[in-house]
Amino acid sequence: MLVDPALAADGGKVTDFLLDNGMEVIVIPDHRVPIVTHMVWYKNGSADEPSGKSGIAHFFEHLMFKATTNHATGELASAVSDIGGSNNAFTSSDYTAYFEMTAPSALELMMSFEADRMRNLILTDDVIETERDVILEERRSRIDNNPQAVLDEEVEATLWQNQPYRIPVIGWMQEMEQLNRTDAVAFYNKYYRPNNAVLIVAGDVEPETVKALAEKTYGKVARGPDLPPRVRPVEPEQNTKRTVTLSDARVSVPSFSTKWVVPSYHTAKPGEAEALDLLAEILGGGNRSRLYQALVIKQGIASSAGAYFQGTMLNDTNFTVYGAPRGDATLADVESAVDAEVARIASDGVTPDELERAKDRRVRSMILARDNQAMVSIYGSMLATGGNVQDVQEWPDRIRKVTADEVKAVAARYLVLAHSTTGYLLPQPKTEN
Predict the structure, then answer these.
(1) Distance between CA atoms of 332 and 387, rounded to whole angstroms?
(2) Could you report the per-residue pLDDT of 195-226, keeping only the tens digit for each?
(3) What does the alpha-carbon distance between residue 24 and residue 21 come to, in Å, rounded to a whole number?
(4) DSSP for 51-62, written as a single string
(5) Which one of 24, 49, 61, 406 is the catalytic residue?
(6) Whole-prediction pTM value?
(7) Which residues make Cβ contacts (< 8 Å) with residue 433, sequence separation at least 6?
(8) How many Å apart are CA 243 and CA 224, to the nearest integer?
């Protein structure tokens, strides 16, 4: 298979293999700098949580940094810091990931830490209660005290009528407060197994070395029971336009966003996700996009305007446009102008020139991803949502094959205002004394 130069790793090709316990391993050699990124992706996120247990996936991300039978709490962080590296973790709707970036000589140590906490956590009631207080405070500070975050939650809960994507990753407060040791142990035993994980190692390494170290560390972890397919409720046909409005005294500049349910790379028909990807780039993917040029540069009515498509989701995803006014312009002015640009593409399509420029920008983004080792995230998110290595490697060719008619078609089919959800963030109305 021909691999696009943007995806060809420096010093060798991308290697993919399975350990005997079912753990998939991806190696992306890149010998330009003596750094290695070591990342474990678990195929479980907030959308996999049991009903009534929202926030358990994110809660467990926190618990993974606690003591195991072999290491004390904080020992991993200290080991990474001592060698000048960095580490962290994150939870999304469809996956949870843990990573370390260190010198290649520390790779075996990082593998041993991750393999250890995959199965050897010590989950006491005291540990659970202490860390539960931490995530409750995190919700208060990140969500409840942030008007934009509160609105975003309400918009997602309105956009999704049946999918678990309607539930926030951090969880609903009233359910988070009830999470306990039994919930945590059940979640751990179900999902934290090598056959539900993908290991990705990128940087100054050789595949043979990574394989030997992976077998020595992760290979000793017992395979867990086979998990059932990740079948989720099907989203019904959307037939209404819905709006969500939040007024808050802390808001000084109003803004809006409009979202549509669209296919992801995992659920789309051939070529549709790529067309949606390019539609987002052309419509609002940066300062060269139609929205930015028309509303910010030419008309001068917007302080911001853009669009994005979240392609790597296990189920259908969303396509979003947004904007905020500038000067004497009103939010209604900006929203009308954004709607007009969307309608123009749906009716008239895009030009061959802007389509080719958008393709160049999207493919070049792969090159930039290699420069900061973000290629790990590209592979990880794809493999954790039903894709494979070939899907990533063939992506540039598929992007190159998208036609202007296909971009016009997805705009006309999916970006229908009558089937959208719009969120408005407004300043608190002034009251007369």
Answers:
(1) 40
(2) 999 999 999 999 999 999 999 999 999 999 99
(3) 9
(4) TT-TTHHHHHHH
(5) 61
(6) 0.93
(7) none
(8) 44
